[in-house]
Specification:
mainly alpha; 86% helix; elongated
């Protein structure tokens, strides 16, 4: 029984301890919220509202301030007082039996405090915005006024950099000053929103004007210090050059200069109207077109001396080329009496002559233009340089034709020398065959021999023509050379086969008792008598190689060693 009482007592103590801990926690939370609420009431919002009210606001700014003031005094302040009252009630309730049911009201209190905090911060933020805007407007008043003074000073002191465009710039500056006065008036009245709208537009236009004032001098300078002098110089230079009988690839230079003068005047007017982007492009166009006219005129000045030099030189060059071509045609005429010309040499020479005539005609026209003082020197330089290149190419072609025909006589002499050598070689081959004392020669060999002989006769006939066709002669030389080599090979094979056959037949006598050797020797002799010397050699060589391996190779090596010594 005593133990049960102890347990009950412990349970009671634990419960009482938990209640006390919970009560302490709730009271701490309530106290924290009341402290926070008191802090909100201590933010001195009343002082900020009073300070803002002293700004003498009007318009939308005044309306916004009145709404903030009303919201604070009629909603936020009563809400904060209600939170404090509710907090005190909850503190009393937390010390009674209502402790266990107090969590819901505590959470409601926490929510009300959060809403009040947010509302108060929004009021503070709006008041700060009104104050900052007012401060910014007053600062802008001083700054803009100072900038206007600087711009007036710049336009007055450096009016020479602006010309008549200064009038338009001053007009814009005066308009901005009027807009500035309106901004100042709105600021002093406290109409912050209307003042801000005017300020935004004013700042943009101020920046545009400052940019224009900065850009104008660079645009104005070439219009008054460069382009007029250049155009006057071009006009004067053009008149002088025309008097000196210069002519140009563009025959309207004086008109171009007049157009540029008109464009210059129009550009100055555009600058005075502050069409700055248009003027920038116009300046670029003027500079480019002026440079172009300078280049056109300078090109003729530079080309004059060269044109005179080229015409003088080309007079000699054309005469030399014509003389060379006449000599080439005369040489072709002479050689054509003895040789057939196969590469259109006459046609090529005639074509070169026509090209020379065209060049001479152009040269004469250019030379006459210079004498008549009507020459466009740059065009003459271009034409005569091209003609110079053409004449150089013509002379090179003349040289090729001349070199080709000049070889005809040398080639003929060489061909006659080769004919003599071929005649000696075929006679030598014939004697070689006769000295073999063979019973005869195969018809195939004889046909080839006489075929080569006929080719040599044909070569002799080509060289004995009234007009020698060296192209045909060359082809015949190549054919005879190749066929003579082949005939020599056939003759060597004939000789070697016959000589080796005789030696092998003599060696076969050592094998009188060998039936195969005897039969092969007989067959070899039969083929030999039929002029088939290669077949005869094969028949006896095969039998001997079977009877005595290596014998044929030994006899063959001995034979070739003898004939090569």
């Amino acid at each position: 029984m005593f133990q049960v009482l102890i347990v009950i007592l412990i349970v009671v103590l634990v419960i009482l301890g938990g209640i006390m801990w919970y009560q302490h926690r709730i009271l701490s939370q309530i106290q924290g919220m009341m402290t926070a609420c008191q802090g909100l009431m201590d933010e001195k919002i009343e002082g900020q509202l009073k300070k803002a009210d002293q700004l003498q606001l009007t318009g939308d700014a005044k309306k916004e301030f009145d709404q903030l003031n009303d919201h604070y005094n009629n909603k936020i302040v009563p809400q904060l007082k209600a939170i404090q009252a509710a907090g005190r009630d909850l503190q009393q309730a937390a010390r009674t039996t209502k402790l266990l049911t107090i969590s819901g009201p505590v959470n409601d209190l926490r929510g009300d405090l959060a809403k009040a905090t947010t509302a108060l911060k929004q009021v503070q933020k709006s008041l700060q915005h009104i104050e900052q805007q007012s401060k910014a407007h007053h600062q802008a008043i001083a700054q803009i006024k100072k900038n206007y003074q600087k711009l007036h000073q710049q336009l007055n002191e450096k009016s020479f950099e602006y010309g008549d465009s200064a009038k338009k710039l001053n007009e814009r500056l005066n308009d901005l000053e009027k807009q500035y006065d309106h901004f100042v008036e709105l600021t002093h009245k406290g109409d912050q929103d209307a003042a801000q709208e005017v300020l935004t537009d004013l700042q943009q236009k101020n920046q545009e004007l400052a940019t224009a004032i900065k850009r104008v001098p660079a645009l104005y300078k070439p219009l008054v210090t460069e382009f007029p002098d250049q155009l006057n110089e071009l006009a004067s230079g053009y008149d002088t050059l025309k008097k000196e009988h210069y002519h140009f690839v563009e025959d309207d230079i004086d008109t171009q200069i007049d157009r540029l003068q008109t464009k210059l005047e129009a550009t100055v007017a555009q600058l005075n109207d502050l069409q700055l982007d248009v003027v920038k492009q116009a300046n670029s166009d003027l500079a480019e077109q002026i440079d172009h006219i300078y280049a056109v005129m300078q090109k003729e000045i530079d080309a004059r001396a060269e044109a005179h030099h080229l015409v003088k030189m080309m007079g000699q060059f054309t005469q030399h080329a014509q003389h060379q071509n006449n000599e080439l045609i005369a040489e072709l005429d002479r050689l054509s009496l003895s040789y057939t010309l196969n590469n259109n040499e006459f046609e090529k020479a005639r074509q070169l002559n026509e090209q020379i005539k065209t060049i001479v005609k152009q040269y004469n026209e250019d030379a006459q233009a210079i004498r008549d003082q009507k020459a466009i020197f740059s065009q003459i330089v271009d034409r005569e340089k091209a003609n110079q290149d053409s004449l150089t190419a013509i002379e090179q072609e003349q040289g090729k034709i001349n070199d080709a025909v000049a070889k005809l006589q040398t080639d003929e002499q060489r061909a006659r020398k080769m004919l003599q050598q071929y005649s000696v070689r075929i006679r030598t081959i014939r004697r070689q065959v006769e000295q073999l004392n063979l019973p005869g020669v195969a018809q195939e060999y004889m046909d080839y021999f006489f075929g080569v002989s006929d080719e040599i006769k044909k070569l002799a006939g080509e060289l004995n023509e009234y007009k020698i066709n060296m192209e045909n002669v060359t082809k015949q030389l190549i054919m005879v050379e190749a066929d003579l080599e082949k005939l020599q090979d056939k003759t060597n094979d004939l000789r070697d086969s016959a000589e080796l056959t005789e030696r092998l037949q003599q060696y076969a006598n050592r094998f009188a008792g060998n039936a195969k050797v005897a039969a092969a020797a007989k067959k070899s002799q039969e083929l030999f008598n039929e002029y088939n010397y290669a077949g005869s050699l094969e028949a006896i060589a095969t039998a001997l190689e079977e009877a005595e391996p290596g014998s044929y190779k030994r006899i063959e090596d001995s034979y070739y060693q003898e004939i090569n010594e």
